[in-house]
Structure formats: C-alpha cells, structure tokens
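S.,

Sequence below, as promised.
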Amino acid sequence: MQLSKIEAVIEAILFTMGTSVPVDSIAKVIEQDEKTTKKIIKNMIDKYQGEDRGIQIIELDNAYQMCTKAAMYDDLRKITAQPKKVVLSDILLETLSIIAYKQPITKAEIEHIRGVRSDHAVNKLIDYDLVCEVGRMDAPGRPLLFGTSEAFLRNFGMQSLEDLPIIKDEELAKFKTEAEEEVQLEINDVTTEKKNL
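The prediction came back faster than expected:
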C-alpha cells in the first residue's frame, strides 16, 4: 500500500472513531508494525500542525485521536451551543492531584491523605469524566480503585502520565512543613476551646 493511501486510511479511522484508537489497532488495519505506524502518524501530526488546519492528531497514552485545535474554540462556539464550563474547585483539584500521582488508589486512601471524607469530590470527578474506576484492590471488601481517565490526559494536554510534573524535593519539604503547621494550628485551637469550657 502506498504511503498516501496508508495516511488516508489512518485519517479515515481517526475521523470515524472520534475517540482515541490504540496504535496496535491502527497497525493491524494498515498492515504495518507499530514502530512504522508511529512514524507515519508522527509525520501526519507534523502536517496538521500548520496554521491552515483546524484539526490535529494528538497522542494519548499509546493511542491517537483526531480532534479540533484549541485555537478554533471561539469560532466553534459561534456555531454550536456554548459548552458547559467546568470549574474545578480547590477540593476537586486536590483530590484529582492525589489520584493522578497515587493511582490506582482507593477512596479510603484518598481520604487518609486529605484527612476528610472525599465521596463528593471523587463522584464529581467521575461525573466530569476525569477519573474512572480501574479495578478492585485484592483486599478484604475488595474496595474500588480509581485512576485518571483518557479525558484527564486530553484536558490537561498530556500524552501519558509520564508527563505529570515532577515535584521537587524542596517543594515536597515545603508542603510537609505547611501540613505540619496546619495540624499544629488545629491542635492548638482544640486545646484553647477545651480551656475555655
């Protein structure tokens, strides 16, 4: 099959599916190995990067998806109903960060790290399709395990979880100090309240 024909087939697959398609599935259709398939798609990605194109191909965790460019958002809003704007509160961002860095993780583990119940936050993140159930822990009660979804990668502009920012040791030490100070403040407040009784 000629390269132009192969690219046309890949383009048709990605356009038709609308969601991400694993590279091994594409490779089978075009009868190429995965390494060659990735090279062909990388070449297509470069072609779509031009300013004269409104669509692009993005890589998502060893899969590819065809979608519109973010720069087209304002133009697309004029022809479609305005999409619901999702705003992530500090609580949702905190919970999402824990899940992203610690996945797969149970709700009890999330609550242990946050120090508060997290049912609402986890359910909201599932509603927003940023988090999903990824299995069950092999432990008594077989609690559900949660992880980030493909939509999480797409919305935060990452190809895989390896693109998550690395927290530097200095920042980690700073967070730990802040958390310890916060706990100490809470203990002092409780002690003061008891003295006033």
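DSSP finds nine helices and five strands in the chain.

Coffee later?
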